[in-house]
């Protein structure tokens, strides 16, 4: 049986009942709303992992609902159903971030398949957040913070490199520790290094893939958290990029990277970084490498 929380939105009572019945029979926990406005209220109450909505509804249609949901929960998968579907509609919807687009009448098995895919991308937070040991240092009940925790849990499960953005005192270090504590590396080391605390040449040596001064051996199997990554020198940025590239190419933590005729180990470290502000401007001005910026990928706002 499947598991997960789903919100279904449709102003047609028969269609709303039909979709809910299919999902309930598959084992999902289903909540219902008969319009976009009520869907936003139900969303805040039940915090679903997936929303399935009709496109054509009253004052707030499916795309307007999606935009409102995305503003509160950017990672929430939304599946849109419509009897008026066209290829241009589907393309436009998916370009704007809609997870999937199905035309009525839809195949029940196809709906369940897409829901299962969406659930896999939308991890369920602990039922009792206050008792969740991995996020015990983060005390909040806000909707925004719950979305941050959802993103953090995904980063931990998939071991993505992530950039945590927030002003001083916003809790970036606590969030990095929560990501570490939620994953398989929880029992291993967690090392925090502030990039502004060291001269440029020291940071360059520390971020080399190997060598006496490399930090990666000191935290092997654990998590390295680099604060104020935007302060790295061009050479330090290049070395961090080389490490991330090696990790992406590796088939497993024991894989090795052939570089310059020698063989060097790929660091078995989950790398997280932080910045006090987005680095788009630094990339545009040439102060931060664009390839490193895109390697860092996922951004979690603290």
Keywords:
5-stranded parallel β-sheet
Structure description:
- The chain is of the alpha/beta class.
- 39% of the residues lie in helices and 19% in strands.
- The protein has helices spanning 13-25, 36-46, 62-72, 87-95, 108-120, 143-158, 172-182, 200-206, 234-249, 280-284, 290-296, and strands at residues 5-9, 29-33, 50-54, 78-82, 100-103, 162-165, 190-194, 223-227, 256-259, 262-265, 270-275, 298-301.
- The protein has a five-stranded parallel beta sheet, with helices on both faces. The protein has a five-stranded parallel beta sheet with strand order 7-8-11-6-12, with helices on one face. A two-stranded antiparallel sheet has the order 9-10.
- Strand 9 and strand 10 form a beta hairpin.
- Helix 6 packs across helix 7 (172-182), helix 8 (200-206) packs parallel to helix 9 and helix 9 (234-249) crosses helix 11 (290-296).
- Residues 126-131 and 251-262 have low confidence and may be disordered.
Could you outline the blueprint of secondary structure elements for this entry?
Elements: E1 5-9, H1 13-25, E2 29-33, H2 36-46, E3 50-54, H3 62-72, E4 78-82, H4 87-95, E5 100-103, H5 108-120, H6 143-158, E6 162-165, H7 172-182, E7 190-194, H8 200-206, E8 223-227, H9 234-249, E9 256-259, E10 262-265, E11 270-275, H10 280-284, H11 290-296, E12 298-301
Parallel strand pairs: 1-2, 1-3, 3-4, 4-5, 6-11, 6-12, 7-8, 8-11
Antiparallel strand pairs: 9-10
Helix pairs in contact: 2-3, 6-7, 8-9, 9-11
């Amino acid at each position: 049986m499947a598991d997960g929380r789903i919100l279904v939105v449709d102003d047609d009572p028969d269609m709303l009942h039909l979709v809910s019945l299919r999902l309930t029979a598959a084992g999902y926990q289903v909540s219902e709303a008969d319009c976009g406005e009520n869907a936003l209220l139900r969303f805040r109450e039940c915090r679903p992992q997936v929303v399935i909505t009709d496109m054509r509804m009253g004052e707030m249609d499916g795309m307007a609902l999606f935009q409102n949901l995305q503003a509160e929960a950017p990672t929430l998968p939304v599946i849109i159903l419509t009897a008026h579907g066209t290829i241009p509609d589907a393309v436009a919807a998916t370009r704007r971030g809609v997870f999937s687009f199905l035309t009525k009448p839809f195949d029940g098995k196809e709906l369940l398949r897409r829901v299962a895919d969406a659930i896999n991308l939308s991890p369920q937070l602990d039922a009792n957040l206050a008792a969740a040991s991995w996020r015990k240092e983060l005390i909040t009940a806000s909707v925004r913070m719950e979305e941050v925790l959802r993103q953090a849990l995904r980063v931990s499960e998939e071991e993505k490199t992530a950039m945590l953005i927030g002003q001083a005192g916003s809790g970036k270090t606590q969030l990095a520790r929560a990501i570490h504590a939620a994953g398989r590396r929880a029992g291993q080391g967690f090392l925090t290094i502030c990039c502004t605390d060291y001269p440029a040449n020291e940071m360059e040596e520390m971020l080399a893939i190997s060598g006496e001064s490399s930090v990666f051996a000191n935290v092997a199997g654990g998590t390295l958290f680099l604060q104020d990554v935007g302060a790295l020198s061009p050479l330090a940025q290049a070395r961090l990029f080389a490490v991330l590239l090696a990790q992406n190419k590796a088939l497993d933590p024991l894989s090795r990277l052939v570089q310059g005729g020698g063989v060097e180990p790929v660091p078995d470290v989950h790398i997280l970084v932080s910045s006090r502000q987005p680095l788009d401007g630094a990339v545009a001005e040439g102060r931060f490498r664009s390839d490193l910026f895109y390697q860092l990928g996922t951004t979690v706002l603290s």
